[in-house]
Amino acid sequence: MPNPVTATHSLSPMLPDLSNADLRAKLQQRLDQKTKPVGSLGVLEALALQIGLILQTETPSLQQPQLVVFAGDHGLAARGVSAYPSDVTWQMVENFLAGGACVSVLARQHGLALTVADCGVRHDFLPPDGPAERAGLVVCKIAPGTADAFVEEAMSAAQCAQAMANGRALVQRLPGNVLLLGEMGIGNTSAASLLQARLTGLDIAECTGSGTGLDAAAVARKAQVLRAVLLRHEAATTPLAALQAFGGFEMATMLGAVLEAAATNRVIVVDGFITTAVVLVAHRLEPAVLQRCVFSHRSGEAGHAALLRHLGVSPLLDLGLRLGEGSAAALAWPLLQSACVVLREMASFASAGVSQKASDTH
Ligand SMILES: Cc1cc2ncn([C@H]3O[C@H](COP(=O)(O)O)[C@@H](O)[C@H]3O)c2cc1C
Ligand SMILES: O=C(O)c1cccnc1
Predict the structure, then answer these.
(1) What is the pLDDT of residue 13?
(2) Mutational pocket test of ligand 1: of 76, 90, 186, 297, the residue with most ligand atoms within 8 Å of the beta carbon
(3) Residue 269 CB: number of other CB atoms within 10 A?
(4) Which fold has domain 66-125+134-340?
(5) Contact (CB, 8 A) for 171 and 257
(6) Per-domain residue ranges for the chain?
(7) What separation in Å is there between the alpha carbon of 244 and the centre of ligand 2?
């Protein structure tokens, strides 16, 4: 029988490389002809160029941005690796749906469509005696929480494959050309740290942070637990085996969503530590995924800076945030819009009749 994980996703990369030299040169020329000193918009220019390449146009326009909060519970949370109980996951999902969470208010502020995906929360959001559906909620639950990675694989190969397929199907149904990533799952900084350590080779102590607010002694205990989990799953060395051993259903579903968004040339806005760990897995499967990713911020969570360095990417913001949910992706959103508006709407030296740099006219 084929392994369901490898069966749903070819191990040979399929995603086309975006480095279209012709379009890149055209975009650069367009930026250089805007009425400003060459390069004076700094990172915004690099961002405009990247979005132009992703959307394959000199005049990119971001349409119907979709922020998806992938939610799931973690068996490992029972090992005291988080400062909060697992129940906070479902309670926060209710908070997202009620519009009161940080990501809810930021999404509202910026006009981002917000969807919460129940990928494996230990709670029934659609009980049999209640409504059949709820606005803003997609139920694609694999199981009520993963297994405890301390003793067994967090998920089976079949569960991992199903979650990835769910993520792909979810994105296929979403309109627009931008996907902003968010997540909710008590214990998921542990899963992200484990993936980082296993896939980058960094020591787990350097990948482990305070998550929801553990003190120094508790972070040291968390790192000890995670070290034991790594040992328990010594053989899980491939990206998908590691995801299966350590990941959450929200992370496997997000992985499918990222691969689908990349395959359909959408701009992917990455949030913090957990979403970056998922992108690390995606990058191992499809290196060209990275060209479609905009990294919104450097999280205060220990490990994130090293993870971004490992991927060779620079985030837009560094505000000391360590929340997740997609909050930083939402905060970075206006910068993406500004990058596009500069490309589309700013006058050129020629159109505005502004004199070029003296040396360029001789
Ligand atoms: C009230 C509350 C709201 C949150 N929103 C996001 N997270 C964040 O914290 C969790 C990860 O941290 P750890 O691994 O330490 O459990 C994730 O669910 C993440 O999105 C929250 C956490 C709490 C407590
Ligand atoms: O950076 C993140 O995504 C993060 C950090 C701490 C807790 N939850 C999420």
Answers:
(1) 73
(2) 186
(3) 30
(4) Rossmann fold (3.40.50)
(5) yes
(6) 66-125+134-340
(7) 21
